[in-house]
Design brief:
Structural class: alpha+beta
Helix content: 40-55%
Strand order of the largest sheet: 1-2-9-4-7-10
Distance between the termini: 28 Å
Number of helices: 12
CATH architecture of the largest domain: Sandwich
Length: 299
């Protein structure tokens, strides 16, 4: 059986309803959608997204990343994106295998298998696309296939996951993975500042504090933060705030004023302006629309 056809079959059997399905393999989840979805906010953590069928788009700032069976997506750090399935149907649903990236394992592999350093003229973006190779697809099929053989998971899953990480690390064009594997890289320095922002998004913060956390000069911090996230630190924090406010209004029925206050806005009018700028309509109207016609939040 063709590897891609086999992967479609395995995911289709183990993810029979739309949504994100955790699996008995640690760090592996399966995603299915039988219809295209509206753009929805989600935070991409360090992850490999390997599509078996269909197509998805992730918007990071103003940059669109479209991935499908021919191209996989790598998210290297925690990034707020607008994700939407753009190709799916009942007969050919969107199917994806997602693997959490273990930075400790990547670092170990990078030390054991050093590669010639690529010259990088600019800081890498936090999201990258790359061609799905036959070798990577074959390993993904073997990993997903373990779901049909639960007794083998404990012994074999770590070996196959290690192979997948090795493939990612050694493939051409994957400088983002090598940056992720280096604990002292600019990517990981920015990741420290992002982790702090995710935990303190509703608090006032000074750029100097983030610069200190990253351990960089102010100018270098701004250059690398913008390159990696496609946003300024302030815009990044505001997007985290607005995503959480949207969640509060939709899932907890919190009103717009209270949601804005909880995520750190002091001015309701500023919250409303920023919200409409990101989501296209005022907070209350958008929340009502989502509660009555929500299509789901996919990884």
């Amino acid at each position: 059986m063709n590897s891609l056809v086999e992967l479609v079959d395995i995911i289709g059997r183990h993810a029979q309803s739309d949504g994100i399905h955790s699996t008995t393999i640690a760090g592996v989840s399966l995603i299915r959608s039988a219809t295209p979805t509206m753009p929805m906010p989600v935070v991409y953590e360090p992850t490999l997204c390997l599509v078996a069928q269909g197509r998805k788009q992730a918007m990071l700032g103003t940059t669109a990343y479209v991935y499908d069976p021919a191209k996989y997506l790598i998210a290297s750090i925690d990034l707020p994106v607008m994700g939407s399935v753009i190709e799916a149907s009942e007969t050919a649903p969107y199917l994806c295998l997602a693997l959490d990236l273990d930075t400790t394992s990547l670092s170990e592999l990078a030390l054991r298998h050093p590669l010639r350093e690529e010259r990088v003229s600019a800081p890498p973006a936090g999201i990258a696309l790359n061609d799905t190779t036959p070798e990577l697809l074959d390993a993904a099929v073997r990993l997903a296939g373990l779901l049909d053989r639960p007794r083998d998971i404990e012994a074999l899953a770590p070996l196959v996951i290690r192979e997948i990480l090795y493939r990612l690390l050694t493939e051409n064009g994957n400088g983002i993975i090598r940056q992720l594997a280096q604990t002292d890289s600019r990517l990981n320095q920015i990741a420290k500042a992002i982790a702090w922002l995710r935990s303190h998004y509703n608090e006032a913060c000074r750029i100097e504090d983030l610069v200190d956390i990253a351990g960089m000069s102010r100018s270098s911090f701004h250059t690398h933060f913008k390159a990696i996230t496609s946003m300024s630190p302030l815009k990044f924090r505001n997007q985290l705030r607005l995503q959480e406010a949207r969640r509060l209004m939709v899932t907890e029925a919190v009103d717009a004023a209270e949601a804005g206050y909880r995520v750190g806005y002091e001015s309701p009018s500023q919250f409303s302006r920023d919200y409409a700028g990101l989501f296209g309509m005022p907070p209350a109207k958008d929340a009502w629309r989502l509660r009555t016609d929500i299509c789901g939040i996919w990884h």
